[in-house]
Amino acid sequence: MAEGVGEQARPDGRREFLAANLERVRERIRRAAASAGRADEPELIVVTKFHPASDVRILAGLGVRSVGENRDQEASEKAAELADLPLAWHFIGQLQTNKAKSVARYAAAVHSVDRAGLVSALSKAMVQAEREDSLDCLVQVNLALGAAPGRGGAVPEEVPALADAIAQAPGLRLAGLMAVAPLGEDPAAAFARLAQAAGTLRQAHPGASMLSAGMSQDLEEAVAAGATHLRIGTDVLGRRRTVR
Ligand SMILES: *Cc1c(COP(=O)(O)O)cnc(C)c1O
């Protein structure tokens, strides 16, 4: 873990704490992109779950434009409180269909689309919300070896049908794939399978170019595997009070 992360800084030192962590993470991303020989630089989504709206406001002042949240109630409250800021809200957690209507009010993207029922619910909610833009949807892939269909993402065999459903759904845009590296396996190996699935997806849907992978512990491996969007919480904000 980066130096400084997890320190309980004085309230008036919070900006300096976040600025230093953010710069360290940005430097790690630049280095990882350079050593992977990438000309582009992946986009940083700062995961602000469990941290107060005041932190998100500081981060926006430091140039952060994309934030990630995993619970609808917390995300919708923060988005409302910070509506004056130019932020894109990325929903990255398990999503119940009955929360689709709420998420459609504030989210720019949902990274955790893992079943057909959620595609229909989000599409219906977007049509009702009468937004001018569409909602970027990523299929969350369960990278665990031998994973059974169920929680935590679609198994790789389910991805093509789910992608087609998103591509055809009014109000939604098929943006790409998202995954979390499974515990107990080298993340590079898991992200290699994700990159392969992303290549297959792009053959059928050339516009689906987002690859959301990489957290505080494995951002380098994700960048090497071609991640376009990184979801970093702990190494920017410090430890969360509640462990999930
Ligand atoms: C919390 C979370 C992250 C951020 O993880 P850190 O280890 O704190 O960087 C990324 N992705 C998802 C899906 C998360 O729930």
Can you describe what's shown?
The chain has helices at residues 14-35, 53-61, 72-81, 100-106, 116-129, 159-168, 187-204, 219-224, 234-237, and strands at 43-47, 66-69, 88-91, 107-113, 135-140, 172-178, 210-212, 229-232. It has 244 residues and is an alpha/beta fold. It has a single domain (5-237), classed as TIM Barrel, CATH 3.20.20.10. An 8-stranded parallel β-sheet has the order 7-6-5-4-3-2-1-8. Helix 7 (187-204) links the parallel strand 6 and strand 7. Helix 3 (72-81) runs parallel beside helix 4 (100-106) and helix 4 crosses helix 5. Mean pLDDT is 94; it is low at 1-7. Bound molecules: pyridoxal-5'-phosphate.
Provide the structure class: alpha/beta
**Which value, in Å, is the CA radius of gyration?**
17 Å
**DSSP summary, beta strand count:** 8
Shape designation: globular
Task: Give the amount of beta strand, in percent.
Answer: 15-25%
Helical residues, percent: 40-55%
The number of helical elements comes to 9
Q: Any low-confidence stretches, pLDDT <50, length ≥5?
A: 1-7
Question: Can you identify the CATH class?
Answer: Alpha Beta
Tell me the span between the first and last alpha carbons: 18 Å
The secondary-structure element order is HEHEHEHEHEHEHEHEH
Count up the domains. Answer: 1
Question: What can be said about the biggest beta sheet?
Answer: 8 strands, parallel
CATH evolutionary superfamily = Alanine racemase
Q: Give me the CATH fold name.
A: TIM Barrel
CATH architecture assignment name: Alpha-Beta Barrel
The residue-averaged pLDDT reads 94
